[in-house]
Amino acid sequence: MKKVRITQIKSVIDRPKDQKATMVALGLRKINQSSEQVVTPQVAGMINKVKHLLKVEEL
């Protein structure tokens, strides 16, 4: 399956609770922290929800 590397580039301070929870679910807690995920419909939806806080690279 297709994999992506997700890197947090902006802070979650002053963001809604659901966006903060989505970032934690993606495995991101700090700026410049990266996580590799297999792209499923669920993960794609989470990425889309917080795309303004992320940098996404295909592997």
UniProtKB/TrEMBL annotation:
Stated name of the protein: Large ribosomal subunit protein uL30
Signal peptide residues on this chain, from the entry's feature table: none
Quaternary assembly: Part of the 50S ribosomal subunit.
Domain Large ribosomal subunit protein uL30-like ferredoxin-like fold: 4-53
Gene3D superfamilies: Ribosomal protein L30, ferredoxin-like fold domain
Entry GO terms, CC: cytosolic large ribosomal subunit
Keywords, ordered alphabetically: Ribonucleoprotein, Ribosomal protein
InterPro entries: Ribo_uL30_ferredoxin-like_sf (IPR036919), Ribosomal_uL30_bac-type (IPR005996), Ribosomal_uL30_ferredoxin-like (IPR016082)
GO MF term set: structural constituent of ribosome
NCBIfam families, alphabetized: rpmD_bact
Domain of life: Bacteria
